[in-house]
Design goal:
This protein is α+β, with helices and mostly antiparallel strands. Helix content is 37%, strand content 18%. It has a six-stranded mixed β-sheet, covered by helices on one side. It has a five-stranded antiparallel β-sheet with strand order 18-17-28-27-26, with helices on both faces. Strands 12-1-16-24 form a four-stranded mixed β-sheet, with helices on one face.
Length: 757
């Protein structure tokens, strides 16, 4: 008996020591991390700064929009930072100044005058300003390590009725207990038993905060005891107001795509599109009620259930004298009051989604945990506004019943920077990001890869090579076969290579691809930046596979850049709180195709919009504004694509259905219209004709590809890699000599394709 007592005593001492050490560990964990968790600030994400200089292509209305997004106050005379006064085409701006990664832009009073749609002059203190930058628009805040988002609010900014209503429902004894409440647990159990449903919880606000910050949701005794101990420790170290404030900013209130909705301030904007301090009682009660089950009581998915829960919360608030019975009656009669546009708080969530992904691609994980990061991006609010306007305008015309979706990626022609992004018909919607995640066959958008393979073999192929657009059947093994068809279901006989691409003839393209070999086409797609979703089947030649608009933008960026592959990027710089840049993984820039062969491909893509399937762009663009592009249509009209570029911008647009059903649209009747409407308002520079070394222009007969003379029947000038010119000639003699100089060639192509600049 005595030995048993000693053993029990030893076990008790060991348990006491182990328990004490465990409590010390938990205490250290809380004191070391609570303050950081309490104000775990997101990285600040900025758009590109607007650069201003004499001659800058910018309209007065565009500048007004930029200042509006920057929240400048319109005044009679700008006397303080953040103010602007405007008289017609004359602006007086008192800039705020900004610390850029490379230098400080001072705050100052600047006079800006316009002439038409260009900046005419800039001056400050009577002296001309050569170049200045407005501070960049802050487009959102992100947590680089996860998809969570928050808007942090101070306790004094939170409505008293919301704070007291929260305690009435979740923790009536919050101001009296030391982290847990036996009375509260008993009271909650009794209330739930009487009502027949969960109207109050047993865990205190402090316990819930501990679980959210430090623990899992596992329903085990060990986890519950740990939660209780940590709740007591938290109460010992921190004031009640600090704990309540942290809870109000941390509590989980729903999910939208990859985003978690944490905190009442973010939930207020997400569900009601209203600042927290402006919420009505019925809206406050709805959010309080959601705490017990954010998914179960989600008002967007389960409005009836959410309404019942909200009204129960209003009754509890009235019973606890948080509000009067009359206020509760009025609030119960109110509708849910949800915003029609469900969205996370960020102004541009689709672009921020891209930034998140490229942060993980380009930077080390350990660096992204640094507090106070600032992320400077290539995002252009002006171009985004125009893209959103074009998307809405065209899609409303194409589909008034709101059954189709759209996505567009816009990049800078010369840098590969993504400057605007649309992930759906609701551009500010933070749900499914179609620009990055919709994966569909690309139709004829893939054809340029096949033709580029051919043009890399100038001894065999040129733009004037005759291709057969005749029916064919490809054996696939066993009894299976592949028999492609043209869109018009008609063969077109022998056609020139550039015509086959410009008019998007399937039979000629399939024959060419099979002659070159699938491996060569797949290799070319990889060289152009498309490596995922590429099947090794003959149907690949006509666009089979799974590709996103971003994939197609990468491919066409390589083509637009003359065969120079440049990774699409959205991030220019990331700096820490002290302004020190974070080191990024090096991005690989490689020439993957010869500039001569890509030059020939450009010619064919310019022909596609002048005389081929993309000619509808000139219903929107001026006739003398040169662009290049390609349509894409998939089987049964499920997907409508258009990709193309001007002298400054590249864009890829997609239109389709989320359920992959038919759209009754071709690339030319759907996505092309979104693309062209946007480019007509956004692009400032046409595609220039720059002939590289090793290329010569020659007159050919457009029917058979023979060399001919200027002024001869069907004569057309085509560029050739030197040594690849046709070896046959027509009997027609030239009436006059062709152009000899580069300027003459440029003038001729300008007249043919409407080029300029």
């Amino acid at each position: 008996m005595l030995r048993t007592s000693h053993l029990l005593l030893k076990l008790a001492l060991v348990s006491f020591v182990v328990g004490g050490l465990f409590v010390i560990y938990l205490d250290a964990r809380i004191t070391a991390t609570f303050n950081d968790k309490m104000w775990d600030l997101p990285a600040k994400v900025y758009a590109r700064p607007l650069e201003l200089f004499a001659g800058a292509p910018l309209s007065p209305d565009d500048l007004s929009y930029e200042l509006k997004v920057l929240r400048y106050r319109s005044v009679t005379s700008a006397r303080n930072p953040g103010e602007v006064s405007r008289f017609r085409n004359r602006f007086e701006i008192y800039t705020r100044g900004f610390d850029f990664p490379d230098e400080r832009e001072p705050g100052r009073r600047v006079l800006i005058e316009f002439s038409g749609d260009r900046v005419n002059s800039l001056s400050a203190s009577g002296r001309a300003v050569d170049l200045m930058r407005l501070e960049p628009v802050r487009i959102g805040g992100i947590y680089p390590q996860h998809g969570e988002d928050r808007v942090l609010a101070r306790l004094d900014d939170i409505p008293v009725t919301l704070r007291e209503g929260l305690m009435a429902v979740e923790d009536r004894d919050f101001n009296q207990h030391w982290g847990f409440s036996p009375v509260g647990i008993s009271r909650a159990a009794l209330s739930n038993l009487r009502s027949g449903q969960v109207v109050a919880g047993g865990s205190t606000i402090t316990q819930q905060l501990v679980k959210n910050y430090y623990l899992t949701s596992d329903r085990t005794i060990i986890r519950k005891l740990t939660e209780l101990v940590m709740a007591v420790l938290l109460e010992l170290h921190y004031e009640k107001d600090q704990i309540l404030e942290s809870y109000l900013n941390e509590v989980y209130l729903g999910q939208e795509g990859r985003h978690s909705v944490h905190g009442f301030a973010l939930a207020s904007q997400h569900y009601f599109d209203t600042p927290l301090e402006q919420l009505g009682l019925h809206e406050q009660a709805l959010m309080i009620g959601m705490i017990k089950g954010p998914s179960f009581y989600n008002p967007q998915r389960n409005p009836k259930r959410a309404l019942e829960r909200r009204n129960l919360v209003l009754e509890l608030m009235a019973a606890q004298d948080v509000i009067s019975p009359e206020q509760a009656t009025v609030a119960r009669a109110m509708p849910l009051g949800l915003s029609k546009q469900r969205r996370i708080r960020d102004s541009f969530p689709v672009f921020l989604d891209l930034v998140r992904r490229q942060l993980r691609r380009d930077y080390r994980d350990e660096d992204l945990t640094t507090q106070g990061l600032s992320i400077f991006t290539s995002f252009d609010p002006q171009l985004q506004r125009k893209l959103e306007s074009s998307t809405t305008t065209v899609m409303d015309q194409l589909d008034p019943r709101d059954e189709l979706q759209s996505a567009t990626v816009v990049t800078r022609f010369d840098t590969g920077e993504v400057v605007a992004l649309s992930g759906g018909r609701q551009p500010r919607f933070a749900g499914f990001n179609r620009a990055l995640d919709v994966r569909r066959p690309a139709g004829s958008l893939l054809k340029p890869a096949t033709y580029l393979v051919a043009l890399e073999h100038p001894t065999k192929y040129s733009l004037a090579t005759r291709l057969s657009d005749a029916p064919l059947t490809v054996k696939l093994g066993g009894k299976k076969s592949w028999t492609p068809k043209n869109f018009d279901l008609q063969p077109h006989g022998d056609v020139l290579l550039y015509q086959a691409l410009a008019k998007s003839y399937n039979l000629a393209s399939a024959r060419l691809g099979m002659e070159l070999g699938l491996d060569a086409v797949i290799d070319m797609l990889a060289r152009l930046g498309v490596e995922r979703g590429v099947p090794r089947v003959p149907a690949l030649l006509l666009g089979a596979g799974e590709y996103s608009p971003m994939d197609m933008a990468a491919m066409y960026q390589s083509i637009a850049a003359g065969g120079f592959r440049m990774p699409l990027r959205s991030i220019r710089d990331v700096v820490d709180a002290s302004g020190k840049p974070l080191k990024r993984y090096p991005l690989e820039y490689d020439r993957t195709a010869s500039i001569q062969s890509v030059h020939l491909l450009h010619y064919a893509l310019r022909a596609a919009v002048r005389e081929g399937t993309g000619r509808g762009v000139y219903r929107y663009l001026p006739e003398n504004f040169a662009v290049a592009g390609k349509t894409g249509t998939t089987n049964d009209g499920r997907d409508s694509w258009f990709a193309g570029f001007s002298g400054d911008l590249l864009a890829v647009s997609w239109v389709g259905r989320d359920d992959n059903g038919g759209t009754k649209l071709t690339g030319g009747s759907g996505a092309l219209k979104v693309w062209a409407h946007f480019m007509a308002s956004a692009s400032k520079q046409p595609l220039a004709y720059r002939m590289p070394d090793g290329i010569q222009p020659l007159w050919v007969d457009d029917r058979n590809g023979y060399l001919t003379g200027n002024g001869c029947p069907n004569a057309r000038m085509l560029p050739f890699i030197i040594g690849s010119e046709p070896d046959q000639r027509t009997n027609c003699s030239p009436r006059q000599s062709g152009p000899k100089s580069g300027s003459g060639i440029k003038s001729w192509f300008d007249s043919l394709f409407g080029g300029g600049g």
